[in-house]
């Protein structure tokens, strides 16, 4: 029998990229998987691919936004087949460059609402469901940007650092209910969100220079790490913030200054307003 057979999992932002890789890893081990995302067409294509996995359990989709507490609560309820939820991955997020001195409050709020609040809603409602059914495992997707400063990406960095403290505190609180909470901090991974970083030679090369294992990541690198943290192999691991980044966290944040000069101009980049 597959290791995760009869277990129920939910992955937010599960229609593509890292979220889909996590869903694929769970399905390959026999889990029932619900993927949540904002685009129905993308979810349908992802569900079709997951259903084609021979060992997969029931595959479901939920169209909604993690920035809506009501949507997250409803998605968790749908994922808890037979009233039980075993695994939850808080993956959905947004990125973007925004120098601190010119960041609009609306932009700040949007990033926090999706990345940090969305993770909070996922942990809150998944935690409630797991507490009722005897426990489970939650994993949030953070970032190297939550570990090392990234100039001109302040709102994103703060949202990801907030996720890691949310994970630690949740792990401390939820352990009594037999719920483990961890996070994974990816480095530069080949996703749609990172396409600009991957295709800009100067920035890409700087990322690679910061990695002892000098290659960018693939979504499967993250999916396998999340699968481990949510599986029985890690039953005594909680409150861990795991960097999966080729060792990038050992060095410094990347230099994305070329993007700042292109998007915001020399004066803003040089601190001259």
Which secondary-structure class do the elements indicate? alpha/beta
CATH topology: Rossmann fold
CATH H-level homologous superfamily name:
NAD(P)-binding Rossmann-like Domain
Give helix % range.
40-55%
Order of helices and strands: EHEHEHEHEHEHHHEHH
Number of helices: 10
* Domain unit count: 1
Characteristic key phrases:
single chain; 273 residues; alpha/beta; Rossmann fold; 7-stranded parallel sheet; 7 strands
Give a short summary of the structure.
The protein has one domain (8-269): NAD(P)-binding Rossmann-like Domain (Rossmann fold, 3-Layer(aba) Sandwich). With 273 residues, it is an alpha/beta fold.
Q: Can you walk me through this structure?
A:
This protein has one domain (8-269): 3-Layer(aba) Sandwich (Rossmann fold), CATH 3.40.50.720. The model has no long low-confidence stretch (mean pLDDT 97). It has 273 residues and is of the alpha/beta class. Strand 2 (32-37), helix 2 and strand 3 form a beta-alpha-beta unit. It contains ten helices and seven strands.
């Amino acid at each position: 029998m597959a290791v995760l057979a009869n277990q129920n999992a939910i992955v937010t932002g599960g229609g593509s990229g890292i979220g889909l890789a996590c869903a694929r890893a769970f399905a390959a081990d026999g889990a029932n998987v619900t993927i949540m995302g904002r685009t129905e067409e993308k979810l349908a294509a992802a569900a079709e691919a997951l259903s084609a996995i021979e060992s997969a359990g029931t595959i479901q989709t939920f169209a909604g936004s993690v920035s809506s507490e009501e949507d997250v609560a409803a998605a968790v309820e749908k994922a808890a087949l037979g009233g039980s939820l075993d695994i939850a991955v808080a993956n959905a997020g947004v990125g973007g460059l925004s120098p601190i001195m010119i960041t609009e409050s609306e932009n700040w709020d949007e990033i926090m609402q999706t990345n940090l609040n969305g993770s909070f809603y996922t942990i809150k409602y998944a935690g409630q469901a797991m507490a009722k059914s005897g426990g489970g495992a939650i994993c949030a997707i953070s970032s190297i940007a939550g570990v090392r400063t990234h100039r001109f990406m302040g709102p994103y960095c703060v949202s990801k650092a907030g996720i890691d403290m949310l994970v630690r505190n949740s792990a401390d609180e939820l352990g009594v209910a037999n719920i483990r909470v961890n996070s994974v901090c990816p480095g530069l991974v080949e996703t749609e969100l990172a396409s600009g970083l991957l295709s800009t030679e100067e920035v890409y090369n700087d990322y690679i220079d910061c990695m002892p294992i000098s290659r960018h990541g693939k979504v499967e690198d993250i999916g396998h790490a999340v699968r481990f943290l949510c599986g029985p192999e890690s039953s005594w691991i909680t409150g861990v913030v795991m960097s999966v980044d080729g060792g990038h966290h050992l060095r410094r944040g990347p230099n994305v200054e070329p993007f700042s000069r292109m998007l915001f101009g020399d004066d803003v980049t040089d601190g001259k307003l």
